[in-house]
Structure to design on (199 residues):
DNA sequence: TGACAGATTGACT
DNA sequence: GTCAATCTGTCAC
C-alpha cells in the first residue's frame, strides 16, 4: 500500500522540507516496476535571495518548474552530462526547492545496476545527485512532474525504524563555492548513512 | 556571437 | 590529488 506524502507537507519552507524528506522513500515506476530508495541527503535552495539557487537570476526555460506549487519535481541538466532532481517547496510563484543528493537503495536494485554498469558497488548506485537520477531513470521527461499525483515519480512516507529519530548532520552545501556569503550557509542535511555523497 | 562557468562524475597520475 | 566530458544560461564584445 502506498502512503504518499500529501501536498501540505510540501507547502513548507525549503529547510523544513529538506529535513522532513530525510528517511522518506523516493519511488520511480518504469515499465510497471518500482525502483526506489530512502532519501539520506538533501540540500535547501532558498530562491530569489539565495545566490546558489538557480532561481536567483529569475525564470528561464530550464528552471521554470521551480515556480510551481510545492510537491512538483524540478529536474535539470548540469555539466553537459548529468541530471539532478529537486522537490519544489512552498507555494506557486515562490521558487524554492530541495535537491535530493543521495538515496539508500531499497527496491529494484538490479535495475539500478543495469542503469549504472560502472558503479563499483551498491554504495555507488545512488550516492550523489547525478548517480541517483541515472539509477532511477530520471531525466527531462520528469521535469515538472507532480509528485502528489504522478504514477511515474513520487515520495512515500517510509521513515524506517533505523532512521526514526536519527541524528541529522548539517553542513554547507556541495559545489556552490561561487555563491559568496551563501556558500557556507548550513543548508545541507544528511543522515548517518554509508550512502551519502560526501562525509 | 562567443567565451566561460556550472547544485557532477569517472578515469587517471 | 588532477582533469575532461559537453548542455545551458549569462555576460561581454
Amino acid at each position: 500500500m502506498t502512503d504518499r506524502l500529501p501536498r501540505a507537507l510540501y507547502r513548507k519552507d525549503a529547510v523544513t522540507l529538506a529535513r522532513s524528506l530525510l528517511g522518506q522513500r523516493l519511488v520511480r515506476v518504469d515499465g510497471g516496476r518500482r525502483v526506489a530508495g530512502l532519501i539520506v541527503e538533501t540540500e535547501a535552495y532558498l530562491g530569489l535571495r539565495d545566490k546558489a539557487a538557480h532561481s536567483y537570476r529569475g525564470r528561464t526555460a530550464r528552471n521554470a518548474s521551480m515556480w510551481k506549487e510545492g510537491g512538483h519535481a524540478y529536474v535539470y541538466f548540469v555539466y553537459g552530462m548529468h541530471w539532478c532532481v529537486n522537490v519544489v517547496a512552498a507555494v506557486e510563484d515562490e521558487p524554492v526547492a530541495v535537491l535530493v543528493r543521495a538515496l539508500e537503495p531499497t527496491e529494484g536494485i538490479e535495475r539500478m545496476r543495469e542503469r549504472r554498469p560502472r558503479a563499483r558497488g551498491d554504495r555507488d548506485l545512488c550516492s550523489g545527485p547525478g548517480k541517483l537520477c541515472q539509477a532511477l531513470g530520471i531525466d527531462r521527461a520528469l521535469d515538472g512532474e507532480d509528485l502528489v499525483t504522478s504514477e511515474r515519480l513520487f515520495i512515500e512516507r517510509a521513515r524506517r525504524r533505523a532512521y526514526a529519530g536519527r541524528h541529522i548532520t548539517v553542513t554547507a552545501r556541495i559545489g556552490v563555492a561561487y555563491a559568496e556569503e551563501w556558500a557556507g550557509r548550513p543548508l545541507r542535511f544528511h543522515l548517518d548513512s554509508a550512502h551519502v555523497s560526501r562525509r
